[in-house]
Structure formats: C-alpha cells, structure tokens
Amino acid sequence: MAHPDTHKGAHAHPNPDAHGHEDHGSTHGSLREYTVGFLLSVVLTAIPFWLVMTGAIPDKQTTALVIMAFAIVQIVVHMIYFLHMNTKSENGWTVMALIFTIVIVVIALSGSLWVMYHLNHNMMPMSHDMSQMP
User: What are phi and psi of 119, to 5 degrees?
Assistant: First the structure.
C-alpha cells in the first residue's frame, strides 16, 4: 500500500497562488485610474455645459455637433477607465462585442432614419396640392 503523501504532487494545483480565482486578463483599476477617469468625465461634462449656457457658439447645429463629439469621447473614457474594456480583458471578446453592438446600432439607426425620410418625402402632400383642396 502506498503512503498517502506519495500522490500529493499528482493532484496539486498547477498554480498554487490562484486560490480558485481565474484571471481572464482583466484588471481592476487603481485609485489613480479612477481619479483620472473621474476628472476627465467632469471636464467632458463641464465644457459642453459651459458652451450651452454661455452661447459661445452661435450656430445651434454646430453646438449640437460639438456636444455629441464630447459625448462620444466621454463614452470612450467611461469604457476605458470604469468598465476596464481593452483588448486584453476576456481575450478581446468584450471589444468584439462592443464593435458588433456599434455596427448593429448604426444599421438600425441609419435604416430607421432612411425609412422615416422617405416616408415623409413620399407620403406628405405637396404644398401646391393643398391650395387646390376645397
């Protein structure tokens, strides 16, 4: 009969420091990263707020485009600093899922806008037709 300690090495965990936790390449942020993310978020919120409140850009369409650009940058900041999305986490699957989601949203939004534009253009009566009605 074999001694119980002779088979101990055969069943040992390959990584004794793992303690049941699996690392998929994702890391939790440090206080410095959270602080940088927070400060960037505050600045990216304050600038568009200031633009609207002071009327620094007189054209409303340009102001709207600038605010949307700040919003997109803020989304990226949140994904990097708070959601910890990068190519290393989950072996890159989170970035692939994000790209897939963006493609689907762009297709849905552009298709919806295209349909609404053409419905409006083709279904609304012409202005000269309205004057001939009783």
Answer: -65, -45
Predicted TM-score of the model (pTM): 0.59
The rounded distance, in Å, linking the Cα atoms of 82 and 33 is 8
Give dist(CA 70, CA 64) in Å, integer. 10
pLDDT digits (tens, 9 = 90+) for 11-30: 555 544 444 444 454 467 79
CA–CA separation, 113 vs 75, rounded Å? 23
CA dist 84 and 81 (Å) reads: 6
Residues 87, 79 contacting (CB under 8 angstroms): no
In this structure, the number of other CB atoms found within 10 A of the CB of residue 73 comes to 12
**Beta carbons of 87 and 26 less than 8 angstroms apart:** no
CA dist 36 and 125 (Å) reads 55
User: CA 64, CA 84: separation in Å to the nearest integer?
Assistant: 29
Using DSSP's 3-state secondary structure scheme, residue 75 falls into helix
CB 51, CB 66: distance < 8 Å: yes
